[in-house]
Amino acid sequence: MVLLVEDDGLLLMEASDTLVEAGFQVVEAPHADRALQVLESDREVDALMTDVDMPLGSIDGLALARLVARRWPWIPVLVVSGMGTPGPNDMPDGALFIPKPYAPFDLVQTLHDRVRRAA
Amino acid sequence: MTRIEALLHSHPPPADAASAAEAAAERLARAEAVATEARAAAALAQMRAEIACAEAARLRAAANDQGRALAEGEIRLASMEELNGRLRASEAFTSRLLAASRDCIEVLSLDGTVLWLSAGSAAVLEAGPDDRILGSDWRAVWPEPADRVAAELALAAARAGRTGRFRAASPTRRGALRWWDVVLTPIQGDAGVVERVLAVARDVTDAHHAEEQQILLMQELAHRVKNILAMVQAVATQTLRGATSLEEAATAFGGRLIALSHAHDILIQGSWAAADLQNVVEGAADLHGGRGPDRFLIDGPAVRLGPRSALALSLILHELATNAAKYGALSRVEGRVSVTWRIVAEASEPWLSLRWQEAGGPPVAAPTRSGFGTRLIERTLVHSLGGRASLTYPPAGVVFSLSAPLRAVQEASA
């Protein structure tokens, strides 16, 4: 299952459809706080894909990525944003940055690779 | 009568012929002698006249030369006085010029020691009477190591006879950080050897801040363009997913792009920080038959929307209006749509409550599958904004209502 964290409804809808069509189960979260609730629940998360700028949550996507890398280090992390490439200390080790807009096929391939490697 | 004629008349011919011939010959000889004498006298007089003319000319020329020399001497004297006056004026002017300049103008030794600075420089540097600038190391005023390297390189360039230039930050003597555009040029001696260095530093703090602001704006613009492209990509893919034909997809995609474009126009009016809800609703109405009371009744208080909500609501209203034009109230001449909103208190915070209600159209029925608009309502208004939304299809006309926390609707991020 992929935990998809995106605060833009349109982009969330499109990313979710893309991943569902590729065979993933998707749980959607509009901001980091909701994503943490999902992570702390019993649901098994195979990968995290998060936007960066999500003002309705208490932390942004980069902070969420670092937190997930620390608390759930086995979960592959993808950070997706239209902002510039994050700085060297913004991203946790092993996390991958994908700039927006992205090619849906490439996103699916990348997620498959990461989930397979983590398994 | 000439002298020759007078001689001829003074001797009348004798009576006999022989005597007459002799007398005539004698008179002729005498007349020729007189004529020769007269010609010689005339030539002598002409020669004297020519000599006199030449002498007069010489004297005249001499007199002119002497006069000119005197005049030139006087002029030369006058010029020197004027020149001195001009020099004094020029020095005063240069002095005023240097005092008036907002540039910091210094003369440095080849090792960077400040040997001289203009009167205006102290003001530019905010230096007080106790601040010692002369004799100090010019290189030491650049606190950043990288800037000090740039200063050293510029000084080396000037020492080598070239121009050195750099931009760096340095505080004034009162501690205000300023940005300076610094130009170092060589001052050469008579032999053409570089003896000193002229350092001119111009305060470019305002320009520097404007450039920084411009860079930030460019980054912000790049961010927005990426987000817009991502939105357009999502709209395109979503449109293609739900389309039954390429023509239908093309029409729907074009309409959605125009709705997004209208929302952008409204957001630009609000410096991309906010859009007025009334403008967003009117923008949707304009695309579908106009905002007049014969088609759209629009009413509600002034409400500021954040960029993301404005874009999403523009798309949602466009979908509702498109469906109303195809199947609902706007498909009939007598059909009407009312869009009203108000601010209500809910859980001790203000919420936006908006209602779209159609009337006068054909009896409507719920669609068999969720379209782009329905899914967008669910994702945007419920999922992202934490609000509630309902889309119902009573026979009298479609009713769409939304409630969302004003705080979330007004969120500035996009």
From TrEMBL, chain A:
Protein name, entry field: C4-dicarboxylate transport transcriptional regulatory protein DctD
Residue ranges constituting the Response regulatory domain according to the UniProt record: 1-115
Residues bearing the modification 4-aspartylphosphate: 51
UniProt key word Phosphoprotein: yes
Top-level taxon of origin: Bacteria
SMART domains linked to this entry: REC
Pfam family, one: Response_reg
The encoding gene: dctD_2
The UniProt record lists the keyword Phosphoprotein: yes
Keyword annotations from UniProtKB, A to Z: Phosphoprotein
Provenance organism: Methylobacterium isbiliense
Database matches in InterPro entries: Bact_response_regulator, CheY-like_superfamily, Sig_transdc_resp-reg_receiver
Listed PANTHER family: STRESS RESPONSE REGULATOR PROTEIN 1, TWO-COMPONENT RESPONSE REGULATOR
Xref: Gene3D superfamilies: 3.40.50.2300
Automatic annotation (TrEMBL), chain B:
Record's catalysed reaction(s): ATP + protein L-histidine = ADP + protein N-phospho-L-histidine
A Pfam family recorded for this sequence: PAS_4
Transmembrane feature ranges: none
Name used for this protein in its record: Blue-light-activated histidine kinase
InterPro entries found in the cross-reference section: HATPase_C_sf, PAS, PAS-assoc_C, PAS-like_dom_sf, PAS_4, Sig_transdc_His_kinase_HWE
Keyword ATP-binding: yes
EC code: 2.7.13.3
